[in-house]
Every structure is written in C-alpha cells, then in structure tokens.
Design a protein that fits this description.
The complex is a heterotrimer of chains A (220), B (273) and C (130). By secondary structure, chain A is α/β, with parallel strands linked by helices. Chain A contains eight helices and eight strands. The two termini of chain A are 26 Å apart. Chain B folds into two domains: 144 residues, no CATH class; 92 residues. Chain B has a three-stranded antiparallel beta sheet, with no helix packed on it. In chain B, α4 packs across α9. The radius of gyration of chain B is 22 Å and the shape is globular. Chain C is mainly alpha-helical and 130 residues long. Chain C has five helices and two strands; from the N terminus they run αααββαα. In chain C, strands 1-2 form a two-stranded antiparallel ribbon. Chain C starts with 8 loop residues before the first helix and ends with a helix. The chains are: A alpha/beta (220), B mainly alpha (273), C mainly alpha (130). Chains A and B meet through α2 and α3 of A and α1 and α3 of B.
C-alpha cells in the first residue's frame, strides 16, 4: 500500500484469532486507518494477501464485517429512522430491536435528521448501528475519541455485554487509558509497521507496566 | 436490486424534486410572461421558458452525478462500499435509476412544452391548443419519414440523453481511483475533460470511417453518402442540410467502454481516502 | 474496583474473587456469577475474567458443572485455608512495614493488641449509631 512515495503499510504480517478484543494503537498517520480500510474492503490498492473470515475483501467478507469509520458516513439529510431501515435492508445480521434500544438509551430521537445533530450525537447513532450487527468482525476506527465519558462507558459496556464469543473486535485508538482493562491484545504500529504486539497481561508482566506506559515508552 | 433502487430513490428524491420543481416553475413563469405580450418581458419569458425546458433533464442528470460522487467516493462512500453487495451491482442500480429519472424528466419536459406552447402561441397569435400544434408537427414529420426511421430517431434521441450519466459516472469513478483520489473532485473533472476530448476525436474518426448522413431527398428523409472532407473543403456551406451519422457508433462504443470500465472500477479499484 | 494497570489484570481478579469467597459475598456452595456478568460489572475483558475463574478452579476454590455453571467449593476447610493464606499475606505486609519503621517485635505485638480493641470499639459504636 503506497501513497505516492511513502508506504502507508509496510511488510505487515498479522493474524488475529476470533473471540478477542484487539487494540490497534499508534499515532495519527501510522497506518491504523489504512489497515482497517483494507480489511473493510474500501481500499483495494494493496499488494499482498488479505483474508477476513477466510474471504478476500469483497461482498462475502463484507457480510461478516461491521465497519465503523472515523467519519460521518450516513447521508446528512437522513433521519435516524431511515438509517435503521438502511441497515435492516442491507445487513442480514442487523438486530433492529437492539439498535432501537441503544438509540433510545443514548437519548436520541428517531425522527431527528443527522444534519441537525451534534457530531457526538451522530457518532452515537453510528455506534448504535454498527454495534447492533451480529457480525463476526468489528472494525472500529477511533470510536471513543469524540464522545463524552458517559457515552464512552456505554460503548465499552456494550462491547463487553454483547460481543459474541467467536467475534473479533479490532478497535483503533490513541487513547489507551480508557481501554486498558478491556483489551485482550494490542498491536502497536508505527510508520506502517508493527512495532509491538501481544496479549495485554503478558505484556504487563513482561514490562511490569501498564499498556499506556508501554505505549508511551514505545513511541518515545 | 429492488432494494438498491428503492434506496437510490429515497436518497435522491428530495434533491430531484427541488431541481425539477424550480425549473418547472421557471417554465410556467416564462409561459405567463410570454402570454402577456408585454414588450421586453414577454420575449424574455420566451427565452427563459425555453432554456428551463431544455435543461430540465440535463440538470437532473448533473444533480444525480453530484449524488453519485457523494454517495460513492465522499464520506457516504464508506457506507456504500462496505455493503455486502458486489460493486458492479450497486453501480448498475445507479445507472438504472439515472435512466429512469432521465426518461421521467423527458416526459415531464414534453408536458411542460405543451403548457409553454400556450404562452408562446398567445405571443405569436397562433392556435393555442397544444394538441393541435403537436398533431401538426407530427403530420409534418411523418410526411417525410418512414416509421422505421421515426422509431430509430426516437431511440437515437433517447440514447443521446442516456449516455450522459454513463459518461459522468465513468469520469467520477475513474477520477476517484488511485492516484487521482487525493485531489477530491479534481480527479473526476480531469477525467471528464479527457473523456470529452476523446469523444470529439472518436466522433471525427467515426465520420471518416462511416461516411453516411441523413438528408432530405425527393421529399423524404433518407441515408445519403456524407464526407467530412468534402464538407470541410466546401467551407461547411455545401452540405449543411445533411445530418452526419458516423460519429454515432463511435459515441456508443465509447459509452460501452465507459460502462465496462466503471464496473471494473467498482469491483476492483475502489480506493477511498 | 480499581485495578493497577501495570500488573496483569487476571492476577488481580484472582485476588478479588478469593476475597469475595473468604468474606462470604460468594458463600460456600453458591453459584458464581457468569463470566460476562462479571466482565461487565468490573469493566474487564470476558476472556480475562474467564482466565481468573479457571485459576480459582485450579486452586480448588470452585468447580464447574457442565450444565448448571460454576459453584464456590463447599469444602469449608479449603476456604479456611484460603482465609489463613490471605491473612498470612496481610501479616507479612504489616510486619514488613513496621519493621521498616524500626519497630521491635514486642512493640508491634502491643500495638496490635491495642488497635484491635480500639477498632472493635469503633465498629461497635458505628453499628450503634448507624
């Protein structure tokens, strides 16, 4: 994967087993987003082999993947109710009931238009939709950076409560502190390469430090 | 496919409705103005009405192109391209929807033309009944044209409208691939300019390869030999009543290429930035 | 509960669960909450909670029954042993610290006698007023 002269990802070799919550850590521009886009199937200019649930990125893999990008990806003019309909129409694994509950829980109104909402509210809508799919793989790009602490707790709670035993959740962030206790494993990236990866508790005992401290040390 | 079309319609209907509504309003305004027979204002009404009538379908096509870019390569593209549906199929839905809108826009234009005629005829002092006028026009066409030619003429006009979205969409998709995707809408614009030049060239070549045209002969329309070179040599004055046709296959071939290449773009060259 | 993020979390969970068994908030023979329930309650990863419970099983503090779930052991002797072990750890910690303060054995013993009684009174008073 190249952007002009610089490679966004370089010689990356990763194997993420199901049933895990994996943190994808790194500074802005380290290739986290590029990796998630490739896995989600919205970026096809890469060389190498990619398999998601056994499929190369395409319609088959996309049916298994719930992708939450870092942008407002729903039509601005749409109402929340219409977004629910969109998901229900296109994703066979979408649990509309659950999404409705979450929307209500976040205190959002189904008849509001997205463009009338604040950025934080729109993010909550997207989180509610993305997390209400019974997907095999969740790809969440910086889902907790823009929301208030209360919503953050709800997101984490939702992840812990609802994630199926055989699902993989890959979550990119630069705010490790909030995820410290939730991550099974971490992948730390820099300049398109993996600089450190491993099971969280193994890393803690190896370095006698928190993931946050290890992260800061790694990027010093 | 039905679901895809349904959401194309739901997403674009507001925008299309506003565009078509405003232009229809302009046509009506032009009609009323021309019927007043006031100096200056009435001729102005005639011109504005005619322009609004003429651009209705093209404007809706451009609006759909803007939506095509937004829904496929801007922020909303992250949703569109994450759908568990083959890209070519999503693209097909967009082309079909654009064709439906174009045909509907042409039908509405025809209807508005009837209304517009009432104003124009008032201004000219002609028969105001649009149906009489249409019947008159129909008679004068059928007098010189065979049924086969009439049908191919209608198909030709429709095709000339329907190739536009195909070309626009190609420019947007091709211009959003690597490495042009970093320039936002710059990529599509660049590709469209290249495509335009290419279509002019292809048209010219077509005129050489297929030297035929349509012209009046012995009181009816028919195919006649046509040579672009002769036309140029005579300074364009000699054969102006011949309608050359050679560019048509070239244009269609180019559009078929655009269709094929855009499907390919959707299936394997998507690169959202 | 607050975790120390610089030490493995599953180890801290084992201590927390052991404490619950000893103080009887998870009574002997009772059903242990489900993995997911614990994960949500404590805000930790379910796999981590699972690993801690597996360790409890390995230490004989609870047992799995295939259909009905996981139960605290009804071997009260085992729980008493655990209590003794935890108390021993606490005692070691206390001794370490007062030694660090240059206190001698007899002084420390007297201190425990004295404080034990004061704490009893305080707890008694609290239960009276509360």
């Amino acid at each position: 994967m190249r952007y002009g002269a610089t490679k966004a990802l370089d010689d990356l070799d990763l194997d993420l087993p199901p049933g895990q919550i994996v943190g994808l850590l790194g500074e802005n521009g380290c290739g986290k987003t590029t990796l998630l886009k490739i896995l989600a199937g919205v970026l096809s200019d890469y060389t190498g082999e990619v398999r998601v649930g056994g499929y190369a990125p395409g319609p088959d893999s996309k049916a298994l993947v719930s992708f939450l990008p870092d942008t407002s990806f729903l039509p601005d003019a749409a109402r929340v109710r219409y977004c629910l309909e969109l998901y229900a129409d296109f994703f066979a694994d979408f649990d509309e009931e659950k999404a409705r509950d979450l929307i209500g829980f976040f205190g959002l109104n189904e008849s509001s238009r997205l463009k009338e909402m604040s950025k934080g509210m729109r993010e909550k809508v997207q989180i509610a939709l993305a997390m209400s799919r019974n997907a095999k793989v969740f790809l969440l790009d910086e889902p907790i950076s823009g929301v208030d602490p209360a919503a953050r707790d709800v997101i984490l709670d939702g992840i812990l409560r609802n994630l199926a035993d055989d699902s993989l959740l890959l979550i990119s962030t630069h705010l490790i502190h909030d995820l410290e206790q939730v991550l099974d494993a971490v992948v730390m990236m820099r300049h398109g390469k993996v600089v450190l990866s491993g099971q969280s508790d193994d890393l803690r005992s190896r370095y006698s430090a928190s993931l946050d401290q290890i992260f800061k040390e790694t990027y010093r | 496919m039905i679901t895809l079309l349904k959401h194309e319609a739901l997403r674009t209907r507001g925008m299309l409705g506003i565009g078509a509504g405003l232009l229809a309003l302009l046509v009506l305004l032009g009609t009323v103005l021309s019927a007043t027979r006031w100096p200056i204002l009435a001729p102005l009404g005639i011109v504005f009405g005619a322009v609004a009538l003429g651009v209705l379908a093209p404007v809706l096509q451009l609006l759909l192109t803007a939506d095509y870019y937004r829904s496929s390569y801007s922020r909303t593209g992250y949703f569109t391209h994450a759908l568990p549906i083959r890209g070519g199929k999503i693209y097909a839905a967009k082309v079909i929807w654009a064709s439906i809108v174009t045909i509907a826009a042409l039908a509405v234009s025809l209807l508005l033309a009837g209304i517009y005629w009432v104003g124009l005829a008032t201004f000219l002092g002609a028969d105001r009944n649009p149906f009489t006028a249409a019947a008159g026009l129909w008679d004068s066409i059928t007098a010189v044209t065979s049924t086969g030619l009439l049908i191919s003429g209608a198909v030709f006009i429709l095709a000339m409208y329907l190739v536009w979205p195909v070309q626009y969409f190609f420019a947007v998709s091709r211009g959003s691939e690597m490495p042009l995707n970093r320039w936002g809408v710059g990529g599509p614009v660049l590709i469209f300019v290249i495509l335009y030049v290419a279509s002019q060239l292809a048209g010219m070549i077509g005129l050489f390869v297929l030297p035929f045209g349509l012209a009046m002969q012995d009181g009816s329309l028919g195919f006649v030999p046509y040579s672009l070179l002769d036309d140029l040599r005579l300074g364009g004055g000699g054969a102006e009543e011949i309608m050359p046709l050679g560019f048509l296959p070239a244009l269609l071939l180019l559009s078929v290429y655009c269709l094929w290449r855009t499907v390919r773009s959707w299936n394997r060259k998507v690169s959202l930035v | 509960m607050q975790f120390d993020p610089s030490a493995p979390i599953w180890v801290q969970l084992v201590s927390e669960f052991s404490r619950r068994i000893v103080v009887g908030s998870w009574p002997s023979g009772s059903k242990v909450p489900g993995v997911r329930e614990l994960a949500v309650e404590l805000g930790v990863n379910p796999n981590t909670a699972q690993r801690a419970l597996a360790e409890l099983e390995r230490e004989g503090l609870c047992r799995s029954e295939r259909t009905s779930g996981r139960f605290v052991t009804d071997d009260t002797a085992r729980i008493d042993a655990l209590r003794a072990e935890l108390a021993r750890e606490a005692a070691d910690e206390f001794i370490d610290r007062v030694r660090g303060l240059q206190m001698r054995h007899e002084q420390a013993q007297r201190l425990i006698e004295e404080r034990w009684k004061t704490n009893d009174d305080r707890q008694f008073n609290q239960s009276q007023t509360g």
